Amino acid sequence: MTRTVRVGSLTIGGNSPVSVQTMYDIPLSKLEPQFESRMAVLKAMGCDIIRFSYPDIREHDALCNVVRLCPMPVVADIHFDWRNAMDAMDCNVAKIRINPGNIGERWKTEEIVRKALDKGVAIRIGLNSGSLPRNDGGKSMVDLMVDTALEYISWFENLGFYDTVVSLKASDSALSYEAAREFSKRCDYPMHLGVTEAGGVVSSCVKSTWTLGRLLEQGIGGTIRYSITGSIEDEVQAGVELLRTLGMRKGGMKIVSCPMCGRCSFNSQGFLKEVEHELLATGKDICVAIMGCQVNGPGEAKGADLAVTGIGNKIYLYKKGEIYKQIDSADAGAELLKAVSEYEI
Ligand code: SF4
Predict the structure, then answer these.
(1) Are 244 and 252 in contact (CB under 8 A)?
(2) From the CB of 297, is ligand 1 less than 6 Å away?
(3) Do residues 89 and 115 lie in contact, with contact meaning Cβ atoms separated by under 8 Å?
(4) CB of 289 sitting under 6 A from ligand 1
(5) pLDDT in tens, 144-188
(6) What is the CATH number of domain 254-342?
(7) Where are the domains of the chain?
(8) Counting atoms of ligand 1 from 1, which one is nearest the CA of 309?
(9) How far, in Å, CA of 145 to CA of 150, rounded?
(10) CA nearest 148: which of 178, 179, 176?
């Protein structure tokens, strides 16, 4: 079992549940007006930790504001300038992510570690295969990644700092997998798992699920991030779905939906896209079916708590397996969300 690392209100490693995280997709200088409600939706969808890029201390006030508004622990992502890490800790972030290899001289990293120790801030050593020290000894990439992480950990431990999480990511799934496995054989710090720059929704979900799923089944990984060239809501949904599939997270909404075909009388694809995040954000522990026609619609509706299905040229809302009412396609989203919010388990 790994050590336990406190990150704000939650812990990573040991017996703690595996947490899901994402990284905000807009610069701090351009926070969207609906920021607070978006964070609330992410939290309700199952996001446990959120990271923000912090490249410029002129965004100090924005970062402090974000820490205040976010309902989950905030991580500051730091590259190159050690002073950004020092400043981020004054905003009370729960964790910082650094790669000591791009911070410069060792004393700069040590200053960060001293301050983190003083303020009770966790640190992720985040190494990517593309930003490692020179490989003078002809080591394998896996060994170079693991040895580099272990060296940085020794710097931290020399200062009495142990609240460290480690990630060894590559865009190559097999390398990410082998590096995490090797690290966890040689060290008991918890790992943040991910496949970096993994592509769009389909590519990332395939690569990340294959890599992270196998590691988690072996007990490796305290926190996960799907890196998707897409929405951060998709990243959270993918992470939560993986944990639920592995039996590592219970509860939450189960959505059954048909892929849609030429028989459909209800556009299940477009409808799901429209309401999926809102449905998941309700956090209701129920099953909702969204079906295109009578071939499988009534059957799935019978097994679901709520369902919307096309039958002939009409659309029906089902409750507890029975037709509840006929609805118009324009109102289907609002009708279903209302039924979900009123549903008593
Ligand atoms: S439920 Fe109907 S529309 Fe959906 S995939 Fe099956 S046959 Fe096609």
Answers:
(1) yes
(2) yes
(3) yes
(4) no
(5) 999 999 999 999 999 999 999 999 998 889 999 999 999 999 999
(6) 3.30.413.10
(7) 4-245, 254-342
(8) 1
(9) 9
(10) 179
Amino acid at residue number 49: I
DSSP 60-111: HHHHHHHHHH-SS-EEEE--S-HHHHHHHHHTT-SEEEE-GGGT-SHHHHHH
Token pair of 154, please?
């020794």
Q: Distance (Å, rounded) from C-alpha 164 to C-alpha 121?
A: 10
List pLDDT tens digits, range 97-123.
999 999 999 999 999 999 999 999 999
How far is the centre of ligand 1, averaged over its atoms, from the C-alpha of 55 (Å)?
Answer: 49
**Which CATH class, in words, describes the domain spanning 4-245?**
alpha beta
- DSSP state string for 238-255: HHHHHHHHTTSS--S-EE
Look at residue 160 in the predicted model and tell me its pLDDT.
Answer: 98
291 lines ligand 1 (CB under 6 A): yes
Measured torsion, CA atoms of residues 168, 174, 180, 184, in degrees rounded to the nearest 10: -160
User: Is residue 207 pLDDT above 80, yes or no?
Assistant: yes
Q: Residue 303 burial (CB < 10 Å; 0-12/13-18/19+)?
A: exposed
User: Which mutation among 257, 258, 314 tests ligand 1's pocket best, with the greatest number of atoms within 8 A of CB?
Assistant: 258
